[in-house]
Amino acid sequence: QVQLVESGGGLVQPGGSLRLSCAASGSTLSIVIMGWYRQAPGKQRELVATITNGGNTNYADSVKGRFTISRDNAKNTVYLQMNSLKPDDTAVYYCNVASLRGPIETRYWGQGTQVTVSS
Question: What is the predicted pLDDT for the residue at 29?
Fold first, then answer.
C-alpha cells in the first residue's frame, strides 16, 4: 500500500505561480511512476505530467513550457511547479503513483488539492 499526501493548492491570479507537493509513504520502493492529474468541474480527469524513476517526464500539451514536474527520490516526493497560470488551469489536482510488484501494477491517488486561477 502507498499513501499520498498533497499540499500546495490555493487561489492565484492569472500569470501567477503555485507549487504542488505530494509525499508518498508506505511501500514506496515499488513506485515506478509519479504524476499529476487534474479534473475541472464538468470535465473528465486528465493527465497533467508524469515522471519515471529515471527522471523521464511527460506533459500534457496544454501545460508544456509552463509546468515542471520533478521528484526527490530520497523524500519520496513529487512536485509540480506551475507558472504562468491561466483560468483554464483551475481544477482539483490529484497526485497519482504507479506501483509495480512483479507483473501487477497498482495505481494510488491522493485526496486532491484545489487550484483556482482567478482575478
Answer: 83
